[in-house]
Specification:
By secondary structure, the protein is an alpha+beta fold. Helices cover about 55% and strands about 20% of the residues. It folds into three domains: about 5-180, no CATH class; about 185-240, SH3 type barrels (Roll); about 250-335, Alpha-Beta Plaits. The longest helix has about 35 residues, at about 75-105.
């Protein structure tokens, strides 16, 4: 098809006018935001992306407004209208997603995750992240269906589908039951928040941190940098441990087994000295108690506290190593041991009862 000179000229004029108008309007809007919205940062990648999509959207709308005034034949006008309709839908979708990302960036600006006591920040990050993903999904679905309905052939199919929407919805619901359950679970997790981003959890006997929350699954980063992928339904159906549900502070325990002859008070003083020199200790809890005894040893439990799980682990290891070294150097005879005695020329364990047949 050879396009007429009039079509080419008028198209170039409309495109130039639409581009200049949209570019000027975007610049004016950016200046207004700079003046009245201090949180708006034009240097961020989301702001630049939003500006580009806004220019494209306004450019498409400007052409849609200018084309009817151009003296172009009807067959070319129909082609332009269809093309501009698709461009407007794409521009509006991209602009909407960019605005959502920009709002997320602005809302999370004052909630840093770098602080140790970041409970409120983790709440906000979790809610905003999940809300953004849900809105993203809705915008993409709506845009996709609007784009299809812009074509006459798909519009007829869509009308037929609407007539049988009840049966189609029932079939789709049965086929995608697990997927819908995962999506609804993700929405419920975003509202109730049994887990949040950066929470320390124990799942399937694995220690790790919540690294990513999506609508259908959750990514847990384990201590050895593996990734455990768990469906969102897991956290609503099965029990799990959340060590940072209320606070990041944790209590760490160290069990030491010694002979009855060890002076417990000296070990308490040594524990206080060790913990006071450790940077991992948060200065709240330190103590030692005899928690169990049997015929061979007694069990001592050292209780210490730290500001987070990583520091609690390091503090427990340091306490265990130093306490064992202290007992080994100062009370070597108080390490766990098994007592035996000689009875009529044979060795017997004092903790065991003599055989009744031997007594007879």
């Amino acid at each position: 098809m050879i396009l007429s000179d009039q079509f080419v000229v008028m198209s170039l004029v409309a495109i130039s006018a639409g581009f200049l108008f949209s570019f000027f309007l975007v610049k004016v809007l950016a200046k207004v935001l700079d003046r009245f919205w201090k949180a708006f940062d034009r240097s961020s990648s989301n702001a630049r992306r939003c500006s580009r999509f806004a220019t494209f959207l306004l450019f498409s709308l400007s052409l849609s407004f200018l084309m009817p005034f151009a003296e172009i034949s009807e067959k070319y006008i129909t082609l332009w209208r269809q093309f501009l309709r698709i461009a407007v839908i794409i521009g509006l979708t991209g602009f909407s997603l960019s605005v959502i990302l920009l709002f997320e960036e602005i809302m999370l600006k004052g909630f840093s995750m770098e602080h140790e006591d970041n409970l409120r920040s983790r709440k906000v990050h979790t809610q905003v992240s999940m809300l953004r993903k849900i809105v993203f999904l809705l915008v993409l679905l709506v845009s996709f269906f609007i784009l299809l309905m812009s074509f006459e052939a798909f519009r007829r199919i869509g009308t037929a589908l609407l007539a049988s929407a009840g049966i189609a919805g029932l079939v789709i619901g049965v086929a995608a039951q697990k997927t819908l359950a995962a999506v609804l679970s993700g929405i419920q997790l975003a509202i109730t928040q049994p887990v949040r981003i950066d929470d320390v959890v124990i799942v399937e006997n694995e220690w790790g941190r919540i690294e990513e929350l999506t609508i259908t699954y959750i990514v847990i980063r384990t201590w050895d940098l593996r990734r455990l992928i768990v469906p969102t339904t897991y956290f609503l159906e099965k029990p799990f441990q959340n060590w940072t549900r209320v606070s990041a502070d944790l209590m760490g325990t160290v069990f030491i087994y010694t002979d009855y002859s060890v002076p417990v008070d000296d070990l308490r003083q040594e524990l206080n000295r060790i913990v006071s020199q450790r940077p991992e200790w948060n200065g709240k809890v330190v103590g030692m108690q005899v928690t169990d005894t049997n015929d061979r040893y007694m069990e001592l439990r050292a209780l210490v506290s730290a500001s987070n799980s990583s520091k609690a682990w390091d503090l427990r290891c340091a306490v265990r190593e130093n306490m064992i070294e202290y007992i080994r150097h100062n009370y070597p005879g108080s390490l766990p041991r098994t007592r035996v005695e000689v009875i009529e020329g044979t060795l017997a364990n004092r903790s065991e009862e003599p055989d009744r047949k031997d007594q007879e």
